[in-house]
Design a protein that fits this description.
alpha+beta; 6-stranded antiparallel β-sheet
Length: about 700
């Protein structure tokens, strides 16, 4: 059976270890896992040996408060909900995330769906026993007009990405897939021939990366881990590719937009510009043809993604930022084309009163500015992803794997990548080294620096049987540790996952912003049409003077200017992205500084915090004592000076490996190994100095 308990009173890793030990000592308990941050404990036990109430009593006897949250029988446990994570590409605003959420909720068997716009991820809780539900979810997202990739099929499963060498054709791909699928515990294999990679989803309790690599090697190919990401996720690489994508679009658009802006805004204000603007080509002013030619690739090549996104949004019955951008730029472009054709056919260029009324630069600049905003937004997301990646990098890249005989004697040892560690492996940790994975000490004892998790500056003693946390530093003797948690089960991975869940949760103000953004685009389009209609009616009925109309304009074209203006200045991207971006950056930076924020709601309520209470001094100190001030209370005698200098030289002999030539006089300051001798004032019978704070002596005094 499986029981979930709520445990309160835990403040550090030692507390959670004590709770785990108390639960593990209960007869019939097979496995106990305590989540310090969530204040919960999950226990797998034999119903025929013990009861759930005994688990609560064991925790309370340990000095903590406990309550039973849920108990599931063994059959019910198999039917527990599974959580599936997807990476979604193409979301640009709150309307997009809402569309993805609706598409996922429309899949049969989905209980809950949460979409993180800034992360580009979706977390779906599904009913158990549904084969192929992950592929169905991906298809649902793609049908909604977005791209999706499955990154996690459920709890208790790990994914590894391997580089496979030696594959030359489809038969090689089939050989690799069949070799890996024969391993027990392998759930899914995906081999990419062109990329030379293999993505394997497996049960970490049954098999591991080393077994998978061995199977590929036995099949006649070479294999190695593709990167340091334990779950095979490529969030950092994906963000770098996305950043490069937006920069490429922005720089290309800027190349065309700058000349358009110069011709439209700067050139007419330069004396003698008529030499360049008045020449005609095919019956059109050459400057208009130049703006038309430069704006067209920006509008329909570089900005095509906005038009495609708008069409997808309209097909699914929604409206997002792409709709506004597409409508605004297309309206400006088409108006400009109609305007110059109208003037051309009306032969307005033959008179000297003609004033150009095209707005090609508006379309080009709008696309360029939106692309610039996308690039800056992606850059901000990348910095937050780096903050989370740094947490995972606290784990060492390699570990020393040892093999012991039945008597515990060392048979062999080898250095392996940390990605290839299996549950139950015996790992050797040298003094000053990092613990590779969460585990239990099986031999030796040492003080561990756990400040990166607990914030406690004092090292903690770990003897045989004591649990250790991956990433912590051994400050004493050599340890032998048995790995008990690897991959996504480690404490550091759970911390990162907690931060990701906090970033995925919506703050109350964000929920309000999403509701406003969902109706923002239709309201803006309606206001734009009403503005055009009001000015058009006013022009036709003569409500405003005819002198307001530019030369060669009609009331229709004049009114269209105001309608377009309303549309191009309205954009819901800031409304829909401001809150999630702030939450993402805030939680990510806080995590890199050792502060874990459980959700956006807590971050929003923190605005009202006026007093912060700390329960440890270790969280407020640096642990590096420094000399802040020195006060000389009396003049030293000659013997004192001699003794001080001899002691300083002695300390240099004892702690420094560098040669020296003895003392350097009573006025010299010796600083070796971080220990500084205070400069001593010379003793002089004729000195006029008064008191210990007299002016310093001359540097040349001996």
């Amino acid at each position: 059976a499986h029981a979930k308990l709520r445990v309160s009173g835990m403040t550090c890793a030692s507390c959670s270890s004590a709770v785990e030990g108390a639960l593990g000592s209960v007869a019939g308990v097979k496995h106990a896992s305590v989540a310090l941050l969530q204040e919960t404990a999950e226990v797998e036990f034999d119903e025929g040996v013990t009861e759930a109430s005994a688990l609560v009593e064991a925790v309370e006897d340990c000095g903590f408060d406990a309550s039973l949250v849920a108990v599931q029988g063994s059959k019910q446990r198999e039917g527990g909900s599974q959580v599936i994570s997807l990476q979604v590409f193409g979301m640009t605003c709150a309307s997009c995330s809402s569309a993805v959420e609706r598409a996922l909720m429309g899949v049969e068997g989905v209980e809950e769906a949460r979409v993180a716009l800034t992360q580009g991820e979706a977390e779906v809780r599904c009913q158990p026993g549904q084969e192929g539900i992950g592929d169905t979810l991906v298809s649902a997202v793609e049908d909604a007009g977005f791209e999706a990739k499955l990154i996690d099929r459920g709890q208790g499963q790990d994914t590894v990405l391997l580089k496979v060498g030696g594959m030359t054709c489809g038969a090689c791909v089939s050989s690799v897939e069949s070799a890996v699928q024969r391993l027990p515990g392998v759930l899914r294999v995906s081999v990419n021939l062109m990329g030379g990679t293999a993505e394997v989803c497996y049960n970490g309790n049954t098999t591991g990366p080393r077994s998978i690599i061995a199977a590929i090697t036995d099949a006649g190919f070479s294999a190695e881990p593709a990167g340091p990401d334990t779950e095979g996720r490529t969030a950092t690489d994906a963000n770098a590719q996305e950043l490069q994508y937006w920069w490429r679009l922005f720089s290309s658009s800027l190349t065309f937009t700058v000349p358009v802006f110069f011709v439209a805004m700067i050139l007419p204000r330069i004396p003698g510009h008529s030499v360049l603007t008045e020449p005609m080509l095919f019956g059109f002013p050459v400057c208009q043809l130049a703006k038309w030619a430069l704006t067209t690739p920006v509008q329909f090549v570089i900005g095509w993604r906005f038009h495609a996104g708008a069409w997808k949004a309209i097909k699914r019955g929604g409206a997002n930022m792409d709709v506004l951008v597409s409508l605004g730029t297309n309206a400006s472009y088409l108006y400009s084309v109609i305007s110059i054709l109208h003037h051309h056919m009306s032969n307005h260029h033959a008179t000297g009163e003609y004033v150009p009324t095209d707005f090609f630069e508006t379309a080009a600049m709008l696309v360029t500015l939106v692309l610039c905003g996308k690039y800056l937004e992606c850059s901000a997301k990348g910095k937050t992803s780096e903050a989370l990646t740094k947490l995972l990098h606290l784990m060492p890249e390699t570990a020393t794997l040892v093999e012991l005989d039945a008597d515990g004697a060392l048979i062999s040892q080898q250095e392996v990548p940390s990605l290839l560690i299996h549950k139950g492996d015996i790992l050797k940790v040298l003094p000053g080294g990092k613990i590779p994975m969460d585990g239990v000490v099986v031999a030796g004892g040492a003080y561990l620096n756990e400040s990166m998790v607990t914030g406690e500056s004092l090292p903690v003693w770990k003897g045989v049987g004591a649990p250790v946390i991956g990433g912590t530093i051994s400050t004493g003797a050599t340890l032998l540790v048995r790995a008990t948690k690897v991959g996504s089960e480690t404490t550091l991975a759970q911390i990162v996952r907690l931060v990701e869940q906090a970033q995925m949760a919506k703050a109350p103000v964000q929920a309000f912003a999403d509701r406003v953004a969902s109706v923002f685009v239709p309201v803006v389009v309606t206001l734009s049409l009403l503005t055009w209609l009001a000015w058009y009616v006013a022009g036709v009925t003569g409500t405003f003077p005819a002198s307001w109309l530019p030369y060669g304009h009609t009331p229709f074209l004049f009114a269209l200017l105001f309608g377009i203006s309303v549309m191009v200045i309205a954009c819901p991207c800031a409304l829909g992205l401001a809150t999630p971006t702030a939450v993402m950056v805030g939680t990510g930076v806080a995590a890199s500084l050792g502060i874990l924020i459980k959700g956006a709601a807590a971050l929003e309520r923190a605005f009202h915090v006026r007093t912060v209470v700390f329960d440890k001094t270790g969280t407020l100190t640096q642990g590096n004592p420094q000399v802040m001030a020195v006060h000389l209370l009396h003049y030293p005698t000659s013997s004192t000076v001699s003794t001080a200098n001899s002691r300083s030289a002695h300390s240099r002999d004892e702690f420094s490996d560098e040669p020296h030539s003895g003392t350097s006089g009573s006025g010299s300051a010796i600083k070796q190994g971080g220990v500084a001798a205070v400069p001593l004032c010379p003793q002089s019978a004729s000195s006029d100095a008064q008191g210990p704070l007299a002016p310093p002596y001359s540097p040349t005094h001996h």
